Every structure is written in structure tokens, then in C-alpha cells.
Model the fold of this input.
Amino acid sequence: MGLMQMNRFPMAGALCAALLLAACGGQDSGDKKDKATIPANPFPSTYEPYPNSAVFITNATIIDGTGGLIDKGSLLIRNGKVSAIGTDLEMPEEATRIDAEGRWVTPGIIDNHSHLGVYPSPGVSAHGDGNEISGPVTAEVWSEHGVWPQDPGFTRAMAGGITSLHILPGSANLFGGRGVTLKNVPSRTVQGMKFPNAPYTLKMACGENPKRVYGYGGGKYPGGSPYSRMGNVAGYRESWIRAADYKRKWEKYANEGGDAPMRDLELDTLKGVLDGDILVHMHCYRADEMAQVMDISKEFGYKVTAFHHAVEAYKIADKLADYGACSSMWADWWGFKMEAYDGIKENVPLVHKAGACAIVHSDSDVGIQRLNQEAAKAWADGKKIGISIPEQEAWQWLSLNPAKSLGIAEMTGSLEPGKMADVVIWSGNPFSVYTKADQVFIDGALMYDRSDAANRPVMDFELGQPGEGDMK
Amino acid sequence: MSAQRIASLLAAAACLALPALAKPIAIVGGDIWTGTSEGTISKGVVLIDEGRIVSVSPAGSPVPVDASIVEASDKWVTPGLISAFSRTGIVEVDAEETTNDTAAGESDYSVALDAADGFNPDATSVAVTRIEGFTRIAVAPSASANLFAGQGFVADTSGEADTDISRKAFLLMSMGERGATLAGGSRPAAWAQFRAALDDSRAYPARYLASNEGTALNRVDAAALVRAARGEQLILIEAQKASDLNAIMDFAEANSDLRIAIVGADEGWRVAPRLAASGIPVIVDAFSNLPASFEQLGATAENASRLMEAGVTVAIAHLGDSSHQARLSTQVAGNAVANGLSHDDAMRALTTHPAQIFGLQGLGVIGPGARADIVVWDGDPLDVTSNPDVVMIDGKVQSLETRQTQLRDRYLKLDESTRPLAYVKP
Done:
């Protein structure tokens, strides 16, 4: 599965180069020799790894993230990267030694479905910045413009071993807007959290939410389009038709010159998808709807990178494997609406067993704090029915697979030398409810230490409030 | 509710409590967490007859020759867990109003709304909760018309039509932010409504001779509040913030005849000694550690352990999704252990403490004479990788099949080469 998966995503390096070139091109420069372009990233990341020294973690049980397990292993972190991993490493003189006897080391967890920052704590009315429900198609909005970097939820996620996370707009709309991938490092600005060179994503939604919000919305009957799942599909297709036309205009302009097409924020994003630069993440519960969406993507020549929630993925795990979409799933959440009615506890292991890409996600400021436990539940429930998956293989649900789904797997998601040193030291086996993240490294810098208050961040909102700096 | 119906329900409950069983059952070889002063008995024997526990004895104790044996070597044996707070069985699909009997904002009534009238033993969540080791569920309605949610009940999770159910086991009401909103817009409004309602019920029926309306409650609701106002019924109050908890304790001191317990209590640790001294128990969710609202600023996952340390009676429940995920209370309790609670106390928070809060006799423990609600686990009940292998209610072994396990089994093999999967009927 590994290689197949890798090939489905653009090589991060090439993509970065493309993004940078596009960004450098600028727009409407006035120089008639320069073509107008659509800036790929007008809000560039300002994140830089924090200073870090070499760290040598030894005597650990290491899950390497690609499916391997190393007993009594060592991990060398140097210059913010994984430098070496194995059993017979020599500790460089300058390195700090951490004896992890009895403890486990894993790649940092990556949650590819979070609304931290856009639906922050406290969840007061002024803080509802995660869904532009003003229309069913709002591909023009970007989640990063709603992220409040002071959300205390980021610190709780860090204590749960989250090193990167994908912030999505909500699921009211057919096209909800762009998602953004963040490093889970506190910052005064969202730009200071943006994962450098991560591709943008597009949030789309199937099913009940769009038709409920728009069709039944405003207390009127009928509210508007879409009113039904038929309307949902018509809405997707109409938008892709406009996007294809927009793309043709830009290509014509690029090839033949003339007047640059008028920029359209909504279509910029959809064109980005058709160009293969922006990854589609689609909220979709029901098996039959996922199958239809896969056909729509073929009609218009794009790819759904991941279906989110995918409560019925187990019913079409074979088709998802053939198509090559990831499924981002809960371990056991179910029943809150009809399209979540057929949820089962073995969804994740059944998808994994079918050879499809399985991801454990949270969609929750509570769940994000213990995704290791969510994976453990799914792992154990699979085992109970005879689907035996080694823990080290199951860990791919938490790090490498979500990294692939976000187009950052070349940079993080496993402990391969050269990758970012996004690393968690756990107090024991992370497939146990009793295990805690002791230390969290992001790009080699120690950003969280459970036993040291100086290494536990406190957001502005919590300063001077009851419980400030408490163990949470 | 007719007297006849109540009588028949009581009769049904009585029948279930003493099922006629052909043979005694012996659970043999497991590590028995008793919930009593016996502690944990290694590789012990639990003997069950006529729906009751006859004896709990150490390893190697003799077993009657006619007993059916439940082999529990290398397994954990615990009392059936008690879900201390949920909406299990009163809603099938939250978003589908026709299937959702949790709340009634448009109703003329509030205190009198009896959640048991909406209980459906066939609700899929009942079996889903049962197979995770919960044999009893305390089920509450949800406040919607005013700060009074209505009457809660305690039921078994057998899913049988004659489910053992204790109606009107408690009254639920909301204070704090939610109570304030429901009462008209402020905490003072909530307290005014609560006090006026108690006055109404204390003046019932005299003041209703001439009118159906009281100061705060109509005749029906005032009548429904009488038992609680006399201290004959437990009042569960939802509240989080330290100042709200103090206000409740002030009120409890001034009304010492009331029986009060608190649900939520995220900032309970800040007033833990006073809670302990007041004897007010709490039902908490150890997942809650975010300043999700301005009344939860001090929330911490160590709340349960700090409260228990101070001597407060603590039950643990998964309050985050009360309709379908009561089963996650074990995971919540496990997280409380990871945040300072002892394993024994976490087990008590799922067994003896809820039994104590709701006055459930013979439940939550494995001891002679107790009702035979017993679970055999394939591992530590609080760990996320464990599952029950046997669930017993009143001595009767329960099915571990649910709609979910059937769906799972239908789709284990995605092979439609000869027939559609609709013909696979697990």
C-alpha cells in the first residue's frame, strides 16, 4: 500500500517549487511582458523551527511510523531533523541523552480534521468563525482567516502528542473553503503556525448538512438550493463546470496572451483543485454518496484525497482502495444523525484490511487530545474479530497516512532520517488509556514537557483565569 | 400514566428481579473486583442462583456439581457498570426529532415530564451500551422549556419489554449558564424560578384549589415537584462554575431537607472540601479540561481525583455525548486514572458510587445477596483495548449482539460475486 499511496500525492518538493514560482510571479505587475498569475500563497508561513540542540533518545520502544518497531532503540535528533534511528547508534558528544527505558517513542500525531482556532474555546458566539454559511458554495473563504491562534485547545492537543493539524472550515456548505495545515506551535499569528510548503486543501461536504442548512434553512419552506442530495450533486457539478471554464480562460491567456481573466476567489480555489495543486477533503458519511463523489471527480478530472468521517467506509472499503482515497474516521462515534446511524467500531480496521488508506481523525477539541486512544480502540476492536494488525502498523493511522492526505509525507509523519523531528516520547505503550505524552518535540525543539511547567504553554486567554497553568 | 400501568410495570420489575433459573452459575478463575471490603479476589469463584449472588469465594473453592460454569481465567470480573448520566434509550437518532424524546421545549409542562414515558428498550443505543459492560443506566431528560428538565429513571440494559425500571428516580434541573438562559436570561432569574417553584410545590395542593397556575409552576408541575421538595426525591443539578456550586451549597444549607447531587461540576475541585463537608455527590466527566465556556475556565482532567481525594462521592460519566456514547464512561474513567485517580476509585465511580447516588440496592457490588449484574472482561475494564466477554443482568446472560455487530458481520467480506450483501443476514 505504501508505494501506491505515495504516488498518489504530488511530490512535496516539486509542489513547493511550483508554489514558490507562482508566488514570485505576482499579479498585475504592470509590466506587459510579465503574465498575470494567481498567487498561490499570499499569506506565507513565517514559521521557523525553534532553536534546538541534538537529542539522543535511547532505550526506547520506537514505532518508526512506516510500520516498523524497534525494541531498545535509539533516535538521534539533530538540526531539527531525524538524524538516525536504530539499535546500535553512537551518541554524539554534544547530544543531550534521554533514557527512555520503559517508554515508547513515535512520530508526532497529525490530526487531519480539526476546527481548533476556528471554533475555539471558549465557544462563545463571537468565536464561531468556522463556517461561512452565507451560501452553499463558499470556496472563496479560507479557514486560516478564521483561526484564532490563542485557542487554548492547541495546548491541550499538544499534551496529546499532536505535532501538526489540519484546520478545516465546517461542513454546512457543498464547498466550504480552503483548509490550512499548521504546526502545533503557539504563535501570535496564524502565519507563524502554517506548515511551511504544505499544499492547500479544499473542504467539501456531502449529505445532510448542506441540504439541512440551505434547503431547510431560514425557517422558510423550501429555503433554497440544495434541498436534497440531488441538489447537492447538481451543486458540485455546476461549480466544477464553472471552474473548468475559468481554468480554460487562464490557460488560453497563458498560451495566447490578451487580457488577463478577472480574478475570482471562489474559482481560484476550484481551479487549484483541477490543476492538482489543492487537495480535496470531503465530509461524507454514506457509502453510496462516496461512490457518487468518486464518479463526479472522474467526470471533472480531479481527485478526492480523503473522505472525512466516512462512517460507512467499511461498506465500500474495496472501492475506496481501488480509487485510492483515504478515509478519515472516528473509532466509534455514531447515531447523532441518520448518515451516522450505521457506524460500527470496526470501521478503521476493516478499511485498513481492505488495503485502503485509513486515518483516525478527531473533528473535536476533546478527541484530538487522545487520538492514540481512539486508534487503540479501533485496533483492539479489529483484533477481537480476528483482524490482527501490529501496533506499529496501526500507528500509520495517526501519523503517516494523515501526512499523506495533507501532502506533507515527504517532510513528516515518520521517523525516517531527514524528516522533521516531530517526535513524542510516551510514558508507556500509547495503545493504553493510562499512557501520557511525556515530551513533544516539533522540528527537534522541545515544545511540551509534562513534568516541567516551564515547557507547557499557556495561551493569552487563560492568563489570570482560574486554573491558569494547571495540569489539564 | 395510569395506576394500572404503574402496577403492571412494578409487577414486571418484580418478576425480573427474581427470574426462575434452572441451574446455578459459577464464574470461575477470574480476578474479581468486588466493590466491597473484600477488594479484588484473585482467581476467585462467584456463585449465582435465582438472579442473586450466593457467594464470592477465593481460588479453588468448590463449585456445586449442577452449576453452569463460566470460565474466566485471565479475565476480569466486575459488577455490572452503572452509567450515571445519559439519554440512552430515549433517542434513536438525535437529529431526527420524531425519534428524539429527550426534550420538549414546546410543552406546557417541565417538572412533570417523565423520561421513562419515552424509554424504548429496543433503542439501538441500549444494546450498544450493554455490550460494553453497562447493565444499568440512569437516564435523564434534557431541560428545554425552563430550568426543569423533568423526571429521570434508572433502567437495566436488557432491552427486554419488561425492563426493570425505576421511574422518577430523580429530578434533573439546570443552573449555571444554561439554567440562566432557560429561566429568562440570568442566574438571578434561575434562582428566582427555582425558589418560586419550590414554594409552589410546598403550597400544593392548597394554592391550586382555585387556579391551575401557581407563581412559577402550573398544577401538574407543582405536583411533580412535591417529592423533591420534601427531600423524598434526588435533585440532580447541572452546574459547572465554582460560584454556581457555592450558590447551590448555600441553598442546600438553607434547605437541609433537600437531597442534591451535581452533574458537571468542572470547577468542583476548587470547592472540593465544602462539597465533601456538605455530603453532596457529583457526576463528572474527566474528559472535560477545556475552558469551553466562561463557567468552565478551571476545568482540568484532575478534577475527579482532586474531588475524590477531598472525600467527595464521585461518579464518572461521559457527558460529552450523552445520547449514544454512555459506553465511553470506562474510557473517561481510565483517563481519570491517568490523571491521578486510583484505579479502585475509578471503578467505584462506575459502580458503587452511582449506586449510592441513586439509592440502588444490591447493585454495583459483587457480594453475597447482591443482584447478579456481572461482567467478565478480556482485560482491564478501564483500558481502551478491553471488551466484555460476558454480560449478565440479574443472573441472566445477555446477548452481545447489536445492530452494529450485525452490520459489521454483513460487511466482513465484500463479496457480491454470487448474491448482493443484502442476503447476508448475520
Observations:
- Chain B has two domains: 3-78+379-406, 81-360.
